[in-house]
Amino acid sequence: MVNQDPTNPSHALFDQFVQTQTCKEVQRTFSELCHHLELDPRDYQSFYTKLKERLNYWKAKALWIKLDKRAQHQDYQQGKVCAKTKCLVLGAGPCGLRTAIELALLGAQVVVLEKRDSFSRNNVLHLWPYTICDLRGLAAKKFYGKFCTGALDHISIRQLQLILLKVSLLLGVEVNTGVEFKGWMAKLFPDDHPAGKFQFDVFISAGGGRFVPDGFRWKELRGKLAIGITCNFINHHSAAEAQVAEISGVARIYNQKFFQDLLTEEGIDLENIVYYKDATHYFVMTAKKKSLLKMGVIKQDFSDANQLLGQANVDQDALLRYAHGAAHFSTDHRLPNMQFALNHAGQPDVAMFDFTCMHRAENASLVRERKGKKLLIGLVGDCLVEPFWPLGTGIARGFLAAFDTAWMVRSWGKGKPHLEVVAERESIYQLLSQTTPENISKNYSAFSIDPATRYQHVNLNSIKANQVRNTQILLSITLYVPMCVHGPDSVGAFEELLKWCQQHTAGYDRVKVKDLTQSWRSGLALCALINTFRPHLIDMSSLKESDSVHNNQLAFSLLEEELGIPPIISASDMATKEQIDKLSMVLYLTQIHDAFNERTPTRVIEVLFKYDCWSQFLCSQPVAPLSAPEVTPELSPTSMNNEECYFCGQRVYVLERISTEGKFFHRSCFTCQQCGTTLRLGRYTFNQHTGKFYCELHSEQLENREQSPSVKVGLSVLSLSRWEIKPFCCIPCCQLVAQLFCTEQLRTASG
Questions:
Q1: 397-431, pLDDT tens digit by residue?
Q2: 525-530 — which CB contacts under 8 Å span 24+ positions?
Q3: Whose CB among 107, 171, 450, 568 lies 3.0–4.6 Å from 79's, allowing a Cys bridge?
Q4: Rg (CA), the chain
Q5: What pLDDT is attached to residue 492?
Q6: Is 640 helix (H, G, I), strand (E, B) or coil?
Q7: Apex CA 390: angle with CA 326 and CA 252, to 5°?
Q8: Residue 590 and residue 601: Cα distance in Å, rounded?
Q9: Using CA atoms, how far apart are residues 92 and 500, in angstroms rounded to an integer?
Q10: Which residues contact 430 (CB under 8 A, 6 or more apart)?
Q11: Looking at residue 28, what is its pLDDT?
Q12: Where are the alpha helices (DSSP H) in 331-417?
């Protein structure tokens, strides 16, 4: 045992580790502590136990008590439940690190990758009561003495990351900073980083809203234009600064005089403002566009939010003056020496953003399969649900998702069938966007990764395994594309397809195909490919590189008319979308390759259309991964090209289409007629008489209003995925619908 001499180097190193305030210093002092105690942090299964044994220091013991209490919870089964599970977590933000901690407590080997090499985000997070309780249970106060003292209910992102990083390291999590994840073959930058050899069977993406793995779809939630401004000022921690009161949130509707005075004195027109005092003086506000234009912050008015708030259209100096004026006035001019804090780029930490449009993933998990091995993928943080900052939902729902994800990995580690694991995760995910401080359980001390301890009303089986099978079918199909073109090596398949595209577009001016995504954005590469094989169809000299929408539309139209290949997305999306889905492009280019080479169309293409036709039914038969089922003669790619959306009347492209009740529509259009809530397959009611769809809440209200039995029968015809009858894939669709409808009528009559 190490003695408790206060001059003991290990004690001094532990104190430095606890107190240090930068990411690099945390990693350095931790490495030195491990070296001094002769511990290998890569020995994840016994590292924490050995650390406690060798660091016999009273300050450390207070920390061990906290962590041991968490680790001894029955959910973790003494760290044995996931002892054979290897997890890669992308992103060392608060949600990524919080997930990593739970996975480590389950006994998994956990590796975290973070592109940045420092924690520099000054912005302050509002904490719900349960998150405060949770962080106290992880000994947050031992690492940051000011944590939520008194009535404080917030913490800076940087400080929260430091706390969670220290806990992660102590529990044996391997955290690699300054390492970039380059793709699904786990290519890293730098290329020779040791983490590149890590083989994992669970991948958790916590890389923020910009990194969403292939196979996940986002839906967009758009509202009236709202412009947010955040700014951070240096906190000198003077007595004068300490006297300035925080503003937990003031809105125009509740204090009209304050905002009118601000407009009169400063010319600044706001909807609301928040001020938190942490490592910096942090302000966040919603500004009116008219005011920003008048004050010269925004140079020119545009209807498009991206153009409106684009760097070229914002006067940065005017923005600094605007933010300074709002902050100075709202604190009654009592903050002395207001200097902007600097961000990671060394610039004043002021940002203006549009939160009109937010995104959330349609599903929280999926399973990939290749060569007989399965990979479980989950989302947490902003890439799962983008937060709405005025409500302070970000970190609260982020931590809930981290716990839910850990529960999913626990089921995976216990050997539960993968479809059941995904179905349970999706059942829980349905509750996330509805959670508030008021409707979650109030017994915070009992919170664990078990959803039943946190959500008041949770049904872990609201989505069945056969309902999520469709997601897995589509995933298997997209993975099947490269394998059926060139054999088992999917990487080689992509490279061969890319070489073919490069070969047949070489020599064209303004066309340089470097990949299977971004190189096709302008539409010229597609036109060049067509021109190579059908030179009479396109005059390349007449095309302008800047008119990408026209170029894409021309190529899409010709490929559909001449070769029967339907476009996968619209021309405008192809030209403007931030990320082009690689697997979708592989699917599209594979069809072009086969058509121009006069080959039999790759069977996977037919399978995709078969899936699309049958996606409204629940096939009870198992789906063999990467296998192509037989296709009925009457189904072909061209027979299903021209469907219009049932709701908006616009064309529905194949990869954005879903269908039920015999109707096709855009995912984003599938909403409740009454409240506009986005519906999910298996969680809606369809009124046959009116042809309208409703969420479960409003379907119940409508049923209560209706007295006619015939109307009730119509309302009882729910999504097929909610019926317990198993269809047979060998009978035509119309017969199946008739069979199910008659059965439901009989059930209603007899009930």
A1: 999 999 999 999 999 999 999 999 999 999 999 88
A2: 525/501, 526/551, 526/552, 526/555, 526/556, 526/559, 527/551, 527/554, 527/555, 528/504, 529/501, 529/504, 529/505, 529/592, 529/596, 530/555, 530/558, 530/559
A3: 107
A4: 28
A5: 63
A6: helix
A7: 50
A8: 9
A9: 39
A10: 462, 463, 680, 683
A11: 94
A12: 394-413
DSSP secondary structure string for all residues of 573-631: HHHH-SS--HHHHHHHHHHHHHHHTTPPPPHHHHHHHHHHHHTTS---SPPPTT-----
Is the pLDDT at 502 greater than 90, yes or no? yes
pLDDT of residue 745: 35
Residue type, 654: V
3-class secondary-structure state, position 380: coil
Instruction: State which amino acid sits at residue 31.
Output: S
728 Ramachandran zone, left/alpha/beta (phi>0; psi -120 to 50): beta
pLDDT value, residue 415 = 92
* Reported confidence tier of residue 304, pLDDT bands at 50, 70, 90: confident
CB burial of residue 69 (10 Å; 0-12, 13-18, 19+) = exposed
Q: How far is CA 447 from CA 152, 453, 455, 725, in A?
A: 21, 5, 9, 38
CA–CA separation, 644 and 665 (whole Å): 7
Q: Please give the average per-residue pLDDT across 7-11, as a whole number.
A: 84
Which residues is 154 bridged to in the sheet? Answer: 126
- What token pair was written down for 403? 């716990």
What is the phi/psi pair of residue 537, to 5°? -85, -30
Strand pairing category for 202-205 and 373-379? parallel
Q: 10 Å Cβ neighbour count for 120?
A: 18
**pLDDT at residue 365 greater than cutoff 80:** yes
DSSP state of 674: T
Question: If you ran DSSP here, which 8-state letter would residue 341 be given?
Answer: P
C-alpha of 713 from chain center: 39
Residue 183: burial class (beta carbons within 10 Å; 0-12, 13-18, 19+): exposed
Nearest partner of 647 among 662, 629, 661, 666, judged by Cα: 666
CB 562 within 8 A of CB 537: yes
Given a cut of 60, whether residue 731 has pLDDT beyond it is no
pTM of the model: 0.63
- Gap between the Cα atoms of 279 and 162, Å rounded: 13
Q: State the Cα–Cα distance between residues 595 and 412, nearest whole angstrom.
A: 42
Q: Does an H or E element contain 666, and which?
A: strand 663-666
Question: Which of 184-193, 338-347, 556-565, 741-750 holds the top average pLDDT?
Answer: 338-347
The candidate with the shortest Cα–Cα distance to 212, out of 69, 331, 90, is 90
pLDDT at 665 (0 to 100): 75
Which amino acid type is present at position 653? Y
If we measure between CA atoms, which residue out of 480, 400, 417 comes closest to residue 130?
400
Query: Whole-angstrom Cα distance, residue 40 to residue 56?
Result: 18
Share of the chain above pLDDT 70, in %: 76
Phi and psi (nearest 5°) for 150?
60, -125
pLDDT tens string 698-720: 765 555 554 433 332 222 222 22
Positive/negative CA dihedral, 355, 574, 217, 401: negative
Q: What's the rounded Cα separation, in Å, for the pair 488 and 470?
A: 24
pLDDT tens readout for residues 160-212: 999 999 999 999 999 999 887 765 444 556 666 666 667 888 999 998 766 67
Q: What's the confidence (pLDDT) of residue 710? A: 33
205: left (phi over 0), alpha (psi -120 to 50) or beta: beta
- 182 sits in the region (left: phi over 0; alpha: psi -120 to 50; else beta) called alpha
First to last CA, the chain: 73
pLDDT of residue 420: 92
Q: Cβ distance 82 to 106 under 8 Å?
A: yes
At 671 the pLDDT is: 84
DSSP letter at 727 equals: P
Indicate the average pLDDT of the chain.
78
Q: Mind listing the pLDDT tens digit for each residue in 30-79?
A: 999 999 999 998 898 899 999 999 998 888 998 999 999 999 999 999 99
